[in-house]
Write a structure and sequence with these properties.
The chain is built from seven helices and eight strands; from the N terminus they run βαβαααββαβββαβα. The longest helix is centred in the C-terminal third of the chain and has 24 residues. β5 and β6 form a beta hairpin. The model has no long low-confidence stretch (mean pLDDT about 85). The chain has one domain: 3-Layer(aba) Sandwich (Rossmann fold). By secondary structure, it is α/β, with parallel strands linked by helices. α1 crosses α7 and α5 packs across α6. It has a five-stranded parallel sheet with strand order 2-3-1-4-8, sandwiched between helices. Strands 6-5-7 form a three-stranded antiparallel sheet. It binds adenosine-5'-diphosphate. The site of adenosine-5'-diphosphate (ADP) has 20 residues, from α1, α5, β6 and α7.
């Protein structure tokens, strides 16, 4: 069941992907996480790391190379979930959230440095004393630019998936649990399998 989540920064892809993967017993592959790991390991070519911090899109060949390497691993044999783009898909779940809410979600997003758990200072506050990461590209001015980039990029991508009947639009406004329930509804299961 190759499955992709697509949506602007802050839409809730990471949050929902963790839940869906845990229930389905499939690995979660995040292109953003892979890129940030490659950056931390000093494995990104040239000045890509600096460009990423400014919100620039990473060239497809870099992303596809990372996905290709990752999906060859044994734990991907029964399926996997990607939070961005991929080939040969069964479902593309598009999480839809209005721009103002996306900005608030991204700017107040924090992640636990050790566990990768995603928190939100207002909607899902971290426990006291947690060692938190605040992504360089989650500053408000950068987020706005990333949202513009996303809109330009998906202007062609979403109709492409739609024309192949792969696109499942999901309202991403509501509690995490409400959004999860909508996702499993469009996937045609209750998530308990
Ligand atoms: P994405 O992976 O699409 O960029 P995340 O899953 O990291 O988005 O979520 C962005 C921020 O919004 C995080 O701080 C997360 O805790 C919060 N968030 C995610 N889903 C919801 C929701 N349904 N309601 C409120 N806040 C949410």
């Amino acid at each position: 069941m190759p499955l992709v989540f697509i949506g602007p920064p802050g839409a809730g892809k990471g949050t929902q992907a963790k839940i869906v993967c845990a229930r389905r017993g499939i690995p979660q592959i995040s292109t953003g996480d892979m890129l940030r790991a490659a950056k931390a390991a000093g494995k990104l070519p040239g000045d890509l790391a600096a460009k990423m911090a400014m919100g620039a899109l990473v060239p497809d060949e870099v992303v596809v190379g990372l996905i290709d390497e990752r999906t060859r691993a044994a734990d991907c044999r029964d399926g996997f979930l990607l939070d961005a783009r991929a080939l040969k898909l069964d479902h593309v779940v598009a999480l839809e959230v209005p721009r103002e809410l996306l900005i608030e979600r991204a700017v107040l997003r924090r992640t636990d440095k050790r566990t990768g758990q995603i928190y939100h200072l207002k909607y899902s506050p971290p426990p006291p004393g947690a060692d938190l990461d605040h992504r360089a590209d989650d500053r408000e001015d950068v987020v706005k630019g990333r949202l513009d980039t996303y809109e330009a990029m998906t202007a062609e991508l979403l109709p492409y998936y739609e024309s192949r009947s792969l696109l499942r639009r999901v309202n991403g406004v509501g509690t995490v649990e409400e959004v999860t329930a909508r996702i499993f509804k469009v996937l045609g299961s209750n998530g308990g399998e």
